Amino acid sequence: MNRLLAAALGAGAGGVAGAAAAALPAERRARWARTNYAGREVSLLGGAAAAGATVATLVATGTRAGGAGALAAAAGGVFGVVDDLDPAPTRAKGLRGHLGALARGEVTTGALKIAGIGAGALLAAATLPRPGARPLARVVDVALDGALIAGTANLLNLFDLRPGRALKVGLGGGTLVALAGGPGAPAAAGLAGVCLAALPTDLAERTMLGDTGANAVGAALGTALAAGSRTRRAAALAGVVGLTLASERVSFTAVIEGNPVLRRLDRWGTRAR
Question: Would you call 92 helix, strand, or coil by DSSP?
């Protein structure tokens, strides 16, 4: 599918899904209401809409990478819902927190999400075409691509701490992969369209991605990256792992606020802080 057409399709699907979510009866929307970092009420339905639009758009591209991305995004969205709507959330945060709780015998929804997204990522990686790859090389590719997809899903969630931040990362990443070309380009373009459509309400602090949307968008972006060359995949995996490890020690928000360029990009389109 043409990349511009895929981007337009993603933007249209994102707009329709967002409008449908906003039109739900108030009693159904109430379950998805949350308070954001500034004390304003936002709706996680924005994330559900983005996840649904991402899956639909990637399937509609008709490409192998799009189908694989849809599988990964669906897993990210479904297990993100489990975490978002957990009636008794734990204090465990991040990979270290949830795995530490699991080591103590406590199965958190976050641990379930890690397992579910990981399984979806491996399934998506296994469906990506690797023509000419020998069996052992194929196994290694699936393992590394699965790690890239799951890692990107988790990384996007780490960025979802301020209005529009995760969507800007998804939009920027999707646009770069689309412009670079390759098997994942149409899927990346479609994802960029979805992110663009979701930005206005997220920036206005009416909606937020939550785990549902951030994991779905991140998994889709990771799959588009995994469809590329071995060099591109290795570089992307190194970047994802490095940023994830860094997040355990430093605050992304503090780093962004301390850099004038990043701060301006982060605040673009948002309310005055």
Answer: coil
